[in-house]
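FORM 7B: Structural annotation worksheet

SECTION A. Query
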Amino acid sequence: MDFAYSEEQRMLTDSLRRLMSDRWTYAERRARQQAGVLDQGAWSNLVELGVAGLLVPEEYGGFGETPATMLAVQRELGRGLVSEPAISSAVMAVTLLSHCGNNVVKQRWLTAHAEGEAVLAIAWQEEGERYSLRPLGMRATLVTQGFSLEGRKVLVWHCAGAQALIVSAVLDGEMALFLVPAGSKGLTVADYPTFDGSRASTVTFERVVVGLDQLIAKGPQAHALLTLALDFGITALCAHASGAMEYLTEITIQYLKTRKQFGQPLAAFQVLQHRLGDMLTQQEMGLSMTYVATMGLAETDAAKRSRLVSMAKVEVAAAARFVGESAVQLHGGMGVTDELEVGDYFKRLTYTDLLLGDTNFHLQRMQDLGN
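SECTION B. Predicted structure
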């Protein structure tokens, strides 16, 4: 897989970087976070540059781009610390639907997503189950009108701004995936902020009925689709963290060049130069492992693909924590105040370890999948 940017990729990333500079400034990000709702204007800006349709197949109005282009895009979004559903919806949900066999759902929702008319969320985690993919408490029952869903999902990423949810449930003793419109009767969403400035929800289903044609997949196919979506999401998250580390290192270097102590810039002190060198090393290690995960997405062997993705997640999470903590330390007391954006990047990079499976989960998954 070639990671050297093509002319089209270069133009796209340049446009995204300008957009990040114009619309994802520190003040604007904070204002959107405090509003607590999906900013439709900000999301439309991303849609206009093709983020929503990047991975949508061409037959559904998208661009059908490769994982390499996804990496380039998510890296720029990470530099801007984008908190909109560019991973949860534009990567994970789109990937899952693109590979399913339900053409009714694909035509309706992939087309809408590519056009910026829909945001999708995946509801798969349950209370007490940590990162387990198999649902236990969420149940689906065949009824006259279709399927009735009962249960609760937690930590549903960017659910409040979504027009539809992809929900995992147990149907006839097997895992199944359903497409549930957000306005369905009996569906309750309790939205809340996460500590990195994003949003998540607890979603309760009380006899939520969906039609027979809303069954996306069942059995091993459902598990395979959700695993694939998560692997794509994890890789995108690694790219996002790589961009955030890159930007945070840059502003830390600039701070040390301008801040003076004993009549000279802090950057002149050798011990601080060594710490900056360590940050750059970890940043590059994180990006290199993101390349590994991106190449892994092309693997036809699902177990090998997931091993490579988990391996990258563990390394990127460690690098992200180191870079974030080092940046805060090098900024001194200012690094933990609201006056600087350093703290926001530190929170996002720290959260990288917890999101979509923490280090312990991915180490265990690597072991379970074998060598």
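SECTION C. Observations
The mean pLDDT is 93. The domain at 120-219 is CATH 2.40.110.10 (Butyryl-CoA Dehydrogenase, subunit A; domain 2).

SECTION D. Sign-off
Analyst initials: ____
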